[in-house]
Amino acid sequence: MPTATAKQRGPYAKTAALQSRILETCIELFGQTGFHNLTMKEVAQRAGISHTGLLHHFANKDELLSGVLKLRDQKRKEFFLERGVDVLTVPASTAAIKAMLKTVAANDLQPGLIELHSTLSTEATSPDHPAHDYYRQRYASSIGLYTRAFAALAERGELKSDIAPEDLAAMFVALTDGLQIQWLYDRDTERIKRHVRLFLRSFIPGID
């Protein structure tokens, strides 16, 4: 006879799996149509559930967007951790910093995630967009992380540039974002990596 824990785990697991399916569907839909042009009925149809069923899990588009952004952050964190990189901490060694910077080139090289980022980050420049604060903080966090990384290399004599670390960091984020958009038109992964390496080599000697 199933235990009380088993009974609870079954419905909970099914609910979590359905919510995950809905959010995965929304990654693609938000990337294709943006936030404002997407309707809850379209989400329900693509996820293969009723409109009422969708509202049972997500009351509105704001809740869907919040869930999608959390899922994107989770996927990004897992991507880096699989490669030995903590996205919140500057690595201790020069070699590890260089590895982190190169890893960024391949980050999110999945059409759905890049389309999601490219579409929503553009929409969210409007202060009244529900993802405005998320992207403002995300860019500030990314630039802050790379600023600390470039500053650490400068302290070790591994940064050969007259450009301040914070300016290099802003340029690096702009480069990787721009290259990912270009990748949506021509999915040449090696070209993206090559361009990032060429940029880094221009001021970090010895990076391969």
Task: Please give a structural write-up.
This protein is mainly alpha-helical and 208 residues long. The protein has one domain: Orthogonal Bundle (Tetracycline Repressor, domain 2), CATH 1.10.357.10. Helices cover 71% and strands 0% of the residues. The chain contains nine helices and no strands. Helix 1 (4-33) packs across helix 2 (40-47) and helix 7 (132-155) crosses helix 8. The longest helix is centred in the first third of the chain and has 30 residues, at 4-33. The mean pLDDT is 86.
Short description:
This protein has helices at residues 4-33, 40-47, 51-57, 61-82, 94-103, 111-123, 132-155, 165-185, 189-201. By secondary structure, the protein is an all-alpha fold.
